[in-house]
Structure formats: structure tokens, C-alpha cells
Design brief:
Helix content: 10-25%
Strand order of the largest sheet: 4-3-2-1-5
Radius of gyration: 30 Å
Number of helices: 3
Number of strands: 5
Structural class: alpha+beta
Order of helices and strands: HEEEEEHH
Strand content: 15-25%
Distance between the termini: 96 Å
Shape: rod-shaped
Length: about 120
């Protein structure tokens, strides 16, 4: 009534209920966490025509939700929020072996390979 709390004699008997939640500056529960030297994709904001994401490595944690990261390609150090970073899944051993054995064929080798595969299929 009249936008104010009315006090009665019962208020003097009743204990105050001022149980406020304690405030903390720690990392909020349920947020992602990154480790130092972990590879991530970092959101890039410089350059209009370039890629929007770049590979980076976490250098250190600068706040509850922010990290200092170094771009792999250029070596530039950036400060990024956790929302601007995505973990990169580490390659398995099998994937690493296949990527090291693959070889890019020249146009001539590709044509020769194509014709030999076609001739084998028709036989």
C-alpha cells in the first residue's frame, strides 16, 4: 500500500531475513574451461575479406572467462572471451598416420592414374 512496507510490532519480534547469496569472482559453474597450450579456433575480427576463424594456442588465463591466445599463423597475441574460442579436437594416431602418407598428385599423374583405373574397370 502506497509503495512502502508497513512496520508492525510483530516486525520487532520476527528476525530479519537478509540472507543474500555471497558474490564471488570465480568462474561461473558450467562454463567451459581451457588448458594452457591447448589448441583452439579463435574468432578473428580484423580484416574484412580474411577468414573469420584462425587457429591459436592458449597462453594464459587472464580472467574468469577470458584467455590470452597466440595465433599460430602470425604469432600475434590476442585477449579473447571464452565465447570467442572453440576447442580443436586432437587428431587421433590413425588420422595422423594417414595425413603423413597422403601425397598430392600432379595433373599428369592424376590423368595416368584415372586412365589405368578406367581400363582395369572395363576388363
Amino acid at each position: 500500500m502506497m509503495n512502502r512496507k508497513l512496520h508492525t510490532p510483530l516486525d520487532l519480534i520476527k528476525p530479519e531475513n537478509n540472507t543474500k547469496k555471497p558474490t564471488t569472482t570465480e568462474t561461473p559453474v558450467g562454463t567451459r574451461k581451457l588448458k594452457i597450450n591447448e589448441r583452439v579456433r579463435m574468432r578473428v575480427y580484423h580484416g574484412k575479406s580474411g577468414p573469420k576463424w584462425a587457429r591459436a594456442i592458449v597462453i594464459k588465463k587472464t580472467g574468469p572467462l577470458s584467455y590470452e591466445v597466440r595465433e599460430e599463423e602470425t604469432g600475434i597475441i590476442h585477449n579473447r572471451h571464452i565465447n570467442q574460442l572453440i576447442k580443436i579436437k586432437p587428431e587421433s594416431a590413425a588420422e595422423q598416420k594417414t595425413t603423413t602418407k597422403t601425397r598430392i598428385l600432379t595433373k599428369k599423374e592424376n590423368r595416368e592414374n584415372h586412365y589405368t583405373l578406367r581400363s582395369k574397370a572395363h576388363n
